[in-house]
């Protein structure tokens, strides 16, 4: 069953109302001024998330993964905070360089970067790249050894929303020969990167990966290769449908393991969702309603082809706040397009809704507007910076 937060669960409702960047009263004012749907963007929320992560992982250099949400207000806010940035293409590199970020301070984590993207990124001044196979290593080093390299490792994880080791990463057994090959090119080989998966709910895979990396570093050190950098990726979770421990609590075992195994080394992380996830709330309205086979259907002005795209591409389930009270019934929320695939939530418990009613969806900052479309001619939700 999909999730809605109702007055029947007052503690849960209060928790998610606090996560929302706007109240219902504010949402009504914004809708009157700008229309609906809207994404209410809080720069202060993005700033607070970044600051909490830097406190939880001191001495870890944070590279914000701009793919999660490249809105200019978020990028400018994080630049002001001193964040670094992670990209996967020349297009993303250009997005962040327009705010005065130097290419040499930007990490490119695409293990299969095209020849065009690599050439353009390199010409722009970028030097930090990642590889996970011999062919890509050849592409990156065939014309230069003035390059800084990390080897992407694979650590599969079932306890996460999206397993990012499914598509990328060399195995730990393949790693020694790949690193030796990279060193032989004359390039600056610094270490390894890994990503235990998006929205990871446990630190176990981080700790397992760090132990394996330490063994790899020790093995290579015995062979005369000294490595100095570990990139622990991202995956730090945000609360979509239930409260989660604080990031300080979540990161504590990771921090301890880093201090134990890699004292004095360069440690990086590439979070996206954690920093921007809570920075946006969707304001969406009921455009139509029907009773179909005895079930209430409500048709919204936003759907899975729009801001709810994370439901498809990111396997995300969102908590939905309603103003209505009274009897709750199993209902369906559908998007505005003509496609029957465009279903936001099925079997969701909702009070009776009327056309024009507003719903709030917190934690819509990551992987929502970035993968939104204009299918059927419906406009994407406007993004309004509210602070």
Say what the CATH topology of the largest domain is.
TIM Barrel
Strand content: 15-25%
Which word captures the global form? elongated
The helix-strand sequence is EHHEHEHEHEHEHEHEHEHEHEEHEEEEE
Low-confidence stretches: none
CATH class of the largest domain: Alpha Beta
Mind summarizing the main beta sheet? 9 strands, mixed
> If you compute it from the alpha carbons, what radius of gyration comes out, rounded to the nearest whole angstrom?
22 Å
pLDDT average, as an integer?
A: 92
Number of helices: 12
Could you give me the name of the CATH homologous superfamily of the largest domain? Alanine racemase
**What is the second-level CATH architecture of the largest domain?**
Alpha-Beta Barrel
Structural class by SSE content: alpha/beta
Task: Please characterize this protein's 3D structure.
The protein has 387 residues and is an alpha/beta fold. The protein has two domains: 4-41 and 278-385, Lyase, Ornithine Decarboxylase, Chain A, domain 1; 43-276, Alanine racemase (TIM Barrel). 32% of the residues lie in helices and 22% in strands. The protein contains twelve helices and 17 strands. The strands form two sheets. Strands 1, 2, 11, 12, 13, 14, 15, 16 and 17 form a nine-stranded mixed β-sheet that branches. An eight-stranded parallel β-sheet has the order 5-4-3-10-9-8-7-6. Helix 3 packs across helix 4, helix 3 (43-56) runs parallel beside helix 10 (247-261) and helix 9 packs parallel to helix 10 (247-261). The longest helix is centred in the middle third of the chain and has 19 residues, at 204-222. The protein is elongated, with a radius of gyration of 22 Å.
